[in-house]
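If I may wish for something, please sit down with the protein I am sending here and say whether tokens and residues agree:
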Amino acid sequence: MGVAASSRVRHTRMSAAYLLPEGTRVDDPEAVWSGAWNGRCLLRADAGATPEQGPQNQLYDTSDVGIGRLWLRYRCELRAGESRTWWLKVPPIHRREPSSMGYIAHAFRDVLPGEAVPAFGPEQVRALAALDPLRAEEATVRRWERFFSGAARIDVPDGVLQDIFLSRLATRAILDVSLGPDFAYNACSAFFYFDHAWRDHAYVVTALDLAGLHDRAERLLRAYCAEAKDVPPGPTAFDGKPLRLGMLESGLWQTRPGQYDTQGQNIWALVEHWRLTGDRGWLERTAYPYVRRGALWIVGSRRRHREEVKDPDDPRYGLIEPGGMEVLEVGKGMHMYYMNAFAVLGLREAAEAAAALGLRDDAKLFEAECADLKRSLRRSFERTFRRTGLYEGHLWFGVEPEGVGMYGFWAHNVLLWPCRALDPHDPMLTATIRRLERMASAWGGGLHSEGPGSFWPYIGADRAVGHLLRGEPDRALDYFCAFTDTAGGTLSWGEGYSNLTAGGDQPHQWADAQWIHLFRRLLVLEDGPGLHLTPATFRRWSGGARPIAVSRLPTHFGDLDMTVTPSGGGSALDYRIRVAPRGDQASRPLERLIEHPRAAGGRRILRAEVDGEPSRAFSGDAVVVPEPRRGAELRIRIEVEHEP
């Protein structure tokens, strides 16, 4: 058994099975699997199993039989009363081709340096044989019931959305990788990206917090709040070295050498955990020392780079040092606006955390640095903006026209949400969003696309949330629908798609997290001291009979219980709302609740009542409740125009 010469499989020991005459001597095994002996064997059966090839997932080498399609044709004559047994040992998982990232992508490559996953030992086999199938099934059900009992509950008229929500949480839990009793990280999946990137991981942690699984989020955040030297090494990373988590002495969380792509994301994940749990003690004792050091790294990076650039008119002036993403050579990389936008977010988050802890000097420093970086970034945008017509154009990807790590349009999706590096209606941002939407419509079926024949479902989810901040809820919902519609049979996504073929890996970590982020914000969105309820739900839900119901859904102001019940064919909607603060959430100002009834057919609001009293604080499509009570149920009735 071996690898056929024409096969692209290089990391397996089984490509074909041969039946040779008894007594046949094989001095050169390669002569057998090369095909030279095909005419001398009694029977040959292709049994090769080819995993993903190159950058495209699910593209299989047709010269072999793929995984799950092992065909054996065997014929043997037996005399009466005679029996024979043959054993065929097939490795359950094969090692993989060098992928587009230039390394052997295999989840078990450190444990299994030469071959596939070893067979169970005798003790494991006996334990499996002794299992009672019914009891094993019951135990599995109980385990997942316990897991989901801690999560927020979301019930909407389209049940598949609940299924996706729960399945994405379960998938993320399955892919937690322990680095000892104190540390863990969440792998993208078991195959191509069995690695770690802080920027992706921050979205996963925050998604867990948004779903109410604070204990799981906090477990993953331990590696954010530790020195790199104290965190056990993980599996081999893209650079061929063991994965290192934790913070460096400099205050940098470093995914790989030369990559400064995660300071803002990590600070955001830490501060959001505090906001969504109200755990001030955790923020003060555990997280803030690392939030502060991470923010000071941004401050120091900007100061070092200003001294190097010197000229205030240079578009690099005021930005952080150049770096890259997935660039393995220290010192290479460009002045990517993506990393600077997240640095704006990190400084803003650090300032809020410092203010909450009464650390006025820190808060003042980080607020000033945030404002100055935002101004520097906008000046740089103005210098590099690409005008393509009188009323058309788009932001460029960074200061330099091209170079190492300068990736493309996808990096613009975060400029408004979550980074708020530009104002919602900044003309340069508006022009860029128009460009992104044209590309999505032309090539991506509404999803983010960088060119013909391909699309990238999850990466545009941040832009969809940004549409909510721009007052464009239907665009946000359109993106959500297109994103949801590309989910596969396992309700998951690949990283990117060429036509209908997924590339990278599946289930993709960032995609799972981004779907949860976007789904939740269609129902609930924080915007400063305001809380928007149902800002972008389906209008047809308000014309049906089933309510929208959420319970124990974390927000910045407390856990939300809410039901929205339609009646009269959609002519009225009754909101029941309760916001129950946790910890120091009670001290955060909640200045207004904004209910968006999303009436069927776009019908306008005629009347509103708050706790039985008429309200005049409404527009055609929203009702505002100023300074709402917390901890008690609030009842709001909204009546809309009748259908003509």
The two ends are 74 Å apart (CA to CA). Confidence is low (pLDDT under 50) at residues 6-14, 47-69, 90-118. The longest strand covers residues 558-567. The chain has 15 helices and 20 strands.
